[in-house]
Design a protein that fits this description.
This protein is an alpha/beta fold. The chain contains 13 helices and 14 strands. The chain folds into 2 domains: about 5-245, Thiolase/Chalcone synthase (Peroxisomal Thiolase, Chain A, domain 1, 3-Layer(aba) Sandwich), CATH 3.40.47; about 255-405, 3-Layer(aba) Sandwich (Peroxisomal Thiolase, Chain A, domain 1). The longest helix is centred in the first third of the chain and has 17 residues, at about 75-90.
């Protein structure tokens, strides 16, 4: 079978910027940050220095899962299911028995069901109980969201979860793209979800000393680190011809995927790995560097990541790097770890679809080592032909998605 073009026809998202697609896009295009004091953690039990995060606010699981079914899923899995429902509804896709059989569900999550893990440890080591909740394992497993989406939709094709730290969602989306492109699936639900706000996880990230005390300022000279986020984001992928024939709204086209490993260090990135991943995405997409107008950067706001990513972009794009619009939407929705790539992929697709490039919020003073156009603080009305979305993970695992605008 000849390779098929792959269309993005449905989007679903919830993050600190809102509980649905419309709320998230309104915040992104306005440059409005969702970072603020963490509310859902009891600080009186364990003192924690990091007070700010990008939480999903106002999420009531009982409104989405009836009859106590919310108790069967950890918060991260609930996010993935709710986002998938929105994406599927947004696509207008009619699920026939044959389409369900050829449907794939490919998700990303870095840390899985942290709330379930912590509740089990508390039962054992704090309360002294001899048993933990009988659903601890199903709630903890990283594939819980993908499995639940499969059961709800009836999709019975390839279904799995990828866990590659902060590149998890981009790896998931890239593999889903290739399944649809190569005819191994006729539709895919793909993205990522994460819910890391537990005392144990916060203390672990505090120990890493990469968390900002105030907010996330990617590429700014006075940046002080990342801000943790949570959320879920899913998209519907289908063959371009099928999408056109049914008159679907097409947000954009996924046209390339690049992935590499630095083979270097657990936490310190190199320039070469990210650069090769960007080149790989461009090569598979058949895009020249000059055709890219926007990059949604990994842009964590840490001292280590931002200059390395800047150098990698210079390496790949040469003189054209100066003409690129580059922004980190983590400045608004935080770093949602395994869900980050999914949140950012949707931001990238919407930027292409609407002709509005989201800004890097909280930007203050330029860093000489970070000398690109980071679209500081204000969104930019600009139509671009193609874009990249970067994800670079701890462990040196890099995943880059290439998107083409659909006109």
């Amino acid at each position: 079978m000849a390779a098929r073009r792959v269309a993005v026809t449905g989007l679903g998202i919830l993050s600190s910027l809102g509980l649905n697609l419309e709320e998230n896009w309104n915040a992104l295009k306005q440059g409005r940050s969702g970072i603020g004091p963490i509310q859902n953690v009891d600080y009186t039990r364990v003192p924690i220095k990091m007070q700010n995060g990008a939480e999903v606010k106002g999420f009531d699981a009982t409104k989405h899962f009836e009859g106590g079914k919310d108790n069967y899923l950890d918060r991260f899995a609930q996010f993935s299911v709710v986002a998938a429902r929105e994406a599927l509804g947004d696509s207008g896709l009619k699920l026939t028995p044959s389409l369900k059989e050829a449907g794939a569900v490919i998700c990303g999550s870095a840390v899985g069901g942290q709330s379930a893990i912590e509740a089990g440890f508390e039962d054992l080591y704090v309360s002294g109980r001899q048993r933990v909740h009988p659903l601890t394992i199903p709630k903890t497993m990283a594939n819980a969201g993908a499995s639940q989406i499969s059961m709800e939709t009836g999709f019975s094709g390839p279904t799995f979860t990828i866990s590659t730290a902060c590149s998890s969602a981009n790896h998931a989306i890239g593999h889903a793209f290739r399944l649809v492109r190569d005819g191994l699936a006729d539709v895919a639900i793909t993205g990522g979800s994460e819910a890391p706000f537990t005392i144990g996880m916060l203390k672990a990230w505090e120990a890493m000393r990469v968390i900002a005390p105030d907010t996330c300022r990617p590429f700014s000279k006075d940046r002080k680190g990342m801000i943790l986020g949570e959320g879920g984001a899913m998209m519907i992928l289908e063959p371009m011809d099928a999408a056109k024939s049914r008159g679907a709204r097409i947000y954009g086209e996924i046209c390339g995927f690049g992935m590499t490993s630095d083979a270097h260090h657990l936490t310190q990135p190199t320039m070469e790995g990210p650069a090769r991943a960007m080149k790989g995405a461009l090569c598979e997409a058949g895009l020249s560097p000059e055709e890219i107008g926007y990059i949604n950067a990994h842009g964590t706001g840490t001292q280590g990541n931002d200059p390395v990513e800047t150098a990698a972009i210079h390496s790949v794009f040469g003189e054209h790097a100066k003409k690129l619009g580059v922004s980190s939407t983590k400045s608004m929705h935080g770093h949602a770890l395994g869900a980050a790539g999914a949140l950012e992929a949707i931001a990238t697709v919407l930027a292409l679809h609407h002709g509005i490039l989201p800004p890097t919020a909280n930007f203050t003073e330029a860093d000489p080592e970070c000398d690109l156009d980071y679209i500081p603080n204000q969104p930019r009305e600009q139509r671009v032909a193609a874009a990249l979305s970067n994800s670079f993970a701890f462990g040196g695992l890099n995943a880059v998605i290439a998107f083409r605008a659909f006109r």
